[in-house]
Amino acid sequence: MNPHVATSEPRSVTPFPAPKLMDLPQFQGEHKESLYWGTYRPQVYLGIRARTPQSLIAGLMWINERDNKYQLRHVCKHEDELSTYGWTKHNGRDFGHQVLADHAMILTTVFLKSKGAGSGYGGDWAVRIDGQMDNTKMSSNDDNNLKTWVSDKLMSVLGYSQPTVIQYVIGLSKRSASPFDLVSQLEGVGSHRRRLRPALSLQRSSPWFRANPLAA
């Protein structure tokens, strides 16, 4: 028999005679209930569920346009090319904050949970989602789409559209403090009040104008 050859011997695995960690008293009661709801769904940009197999599932989906193609965002994927995502603040229990930077679109999500007298088991939770556009990251294609959109609206409102007028309206909107300020300034150039009133709906409905922090 070669003494240098190790011999394999059968192993006997005996479970440690102790209760499971999560069954200990200190992990029951209020502690267990406080962790019932949370951001427990993996591999998605935002996912809320309870710690039960039959839980309600909530999440976040949005659509971004790149190269004239609509792309759905939900599951974390490398090909989405988000420059930033993930929780920047989270206490693991009842608060979380994250920033999703999808090219020129910036989304901020906040998760908050509380327990009041009228709350059900696990408390109440809410998610707030804020979105804005970073104009410095808008591509030339986005700029062309904006000009086309403004041109179409000018045709429907005024009956004509010219490049200088398009640039003027876009620039005026970015400098306006509010939609009403934009309408007031357009009226100030001598156009008829009744015909320029639809410019208010133009300001409110455009995603580019809504993203302008000065047009809130």
From TrEMBL:
Coiled coil: none
Pfam families documented for this protein: Glyco_hydro_63N
Keyword Endoplasmic reticulum: yes
Reactions this protein catalyses: N(4)-(alpha-D-Glc-(1->2)-alpha-D-Glc-(1->3)-alpha-D-Glc-(1->3)-alpha-D-Man-(1->2)-alpha-D-Man-(1->2)-alpha-D-Man-(1->3)-[alpha-D-Man-(1->2)-alpha-D-Man-(1->3)-[alpha-D-Man-(1->2)-alpha-D-Man-(1->6)]-alpha-D-Man-(1->6)]-beta-D-Man-(1->4)-beta-D-GlcNAc-(1->4)-beta-D-GlcNAc)-L-asparaginyl-[protein] + H2O = N(4)-(alpha-D-Glc-(1->3)-alpha-D-Glc-(1->3)-alpha-D-Man-(1->2)-alpha-D-Man-(1->2)-alpha-D-Man-(1->3)-[alpha-D-Man-(1->2)-alpha-D-Man-(1->3)-[alpha-D-Man-(1->2)-alpha-D-Man-(1->6)]-alpha-D-Man-(1->6)]-beta-D-Man-(1->4)-beta-D-GlcNAc-(1->4)-beta-D-GlcNAc)-L-asparaginyl-[protein] + beta-D-glucose
Membrane topology term: Single-pass type II membrane protein
Gene Ontology CC annotation, any one: endoplasmic reticulum membrane
Protein name: Mannosyl-oligosaccharide glucosidase
